[in-house]
């Protein structure tokens, strides 16, 4: 996490900000704290994207749909204001590293941990799809590892699979080379099976330590996704059959999220695998350090200057909470 800079807001809606968690094509993500002491991740949309009326319509619909997504393995949407001058959404904060960092720093996950991860992500995707959403960006950096289990995050670029799906933000690239499905790369029809392809690529990376497609450039990666077979030599035997099925070029040949979850966790599901302690010791130690850092950061952070939060905008826009905020503050 990075400290706030001069162009970051001190608060968003009712949340005091403690630091910047990251940023991407859609906006910036901050660590925030409510007046009642709840820690959240606050995603603030880039100003130039927020100016697009069709994006705002899609964002509002998707936030409403994402709030209905339950399950134990997603970061829940807690609060949002799609109608604010700069739209934002707050989700539950997960104090753990993302999968990309964990594997890069500590190496591939041991098979029991990888199986728990697969079971949890499969159940998370089932919950997402049952509410009419397609995530479209399942990748290692969108999977967080907590002591309580894996968490699938970032519904900010999900797409409703009904008639609202045509509401897209111009100029926004959705997906990550190497984890996108063939139909996503070629602009074909997308559905839940596309997320399963990405799930298979994530599981290959988690268990084998390398992505299944290793092109030297984004264009090369995308070519491999569409035309070449994945490299799965490093994937453990107990996961290779499932990963191979998930990475089928034909969407109809891929398993459902529920089937993928059962292949990893059996009928007991992810909860049974996570209950006894699922993370390897180096990752547990990192989670513990992050929890301590969070406590220290909150103690050091100054209180807000005024009772009413304001947005010290990098977009030169005042940022009040709109009069008709559709979601109650947790």
Q: Give the overall average pLDDT.
A: 83
Count of extended strands: 10
Q: Major β-sheet, in short?
A: 6 strands, antiparallel
What characteristic shape results from the CA principal axes?
Answer: globular
Number of helices: 11
Strand order of the largest sheet: 1-2-3-4-6-5
Report how far apart the termini are. 23 Å
Query: What is the radius of gyration computed over CA atoms, rounded to a whole number of angstroms?
Result: 20 Å
**Model regions low in confidence, pLDDT < 50 over at least 5 residues:** 156-173, 304-330
What's the multimeric state? Answer: single chain
Beta percentage is 5-15%
Q: Structural class, please?
A: alpha+beta
Helix content: 25-40%
Order of helices and strands: EEEEHHEEHHEEEEHHHHHHH
Provide a descriptive summary of the structure in words.
- Helices cover 37% and strands 14% of the residues.
- It is built from 11 helices and 10 strands.
- The chain has helices spanning 47-50, 53-67, 99-106, 111-130, 182-185, 192-208, 218-227, 237-246, 257-265, 269-274, 281-300, and strands spanning 11-12, 15-23, 27-33, 39-45, 77-81, 88-92, 133-134, 143-146, 149-152, 159-160.
- A 6-stranded antiparallel sheet has the order 1-2-3-4-6-5.
- Mean pLDDT is 83; it is low at 156-173 and 304-330.
Write the layout of secondary structure elements.
Elements: E1 11-12, E2 15-23, E3 27-33, E4 39-45, H1 47-50, H2 53-67, E5 77-81, E6 88-92, H3 99-106, H4 111-130, E7 133-134, E8 143-146, E9 149-152, E10 159-160, H5 182-185, H6 192-208, H7 218-227, H8 237-246, H9 257-265, H10 269-274, H11 281-300
